[in-house]
Amino acid sequence: MNRLKLLIASSVFVFLPGCALWDAYFMANYDNLEYGLVNKIRTLSELAVEDCKNPEVSRENFEGIYFTSVELRNFTQYIPNNVDANKLANNLVELSKQGREMYVKSNSVSEAFCRVKLQQIGRSAETAQKVIGSKPR
Amino acid sequence: MTLNDIEQMYHEYTGMYQTGAMSKDEYLNLLRGLEVEKAVSMNAEEMQKKEELNQMVNAAINIVSMVV
Question: Which residues does B62 contact at the CB level (< 8 Å), separation at least 6?
Answer without folding.
Answer: none
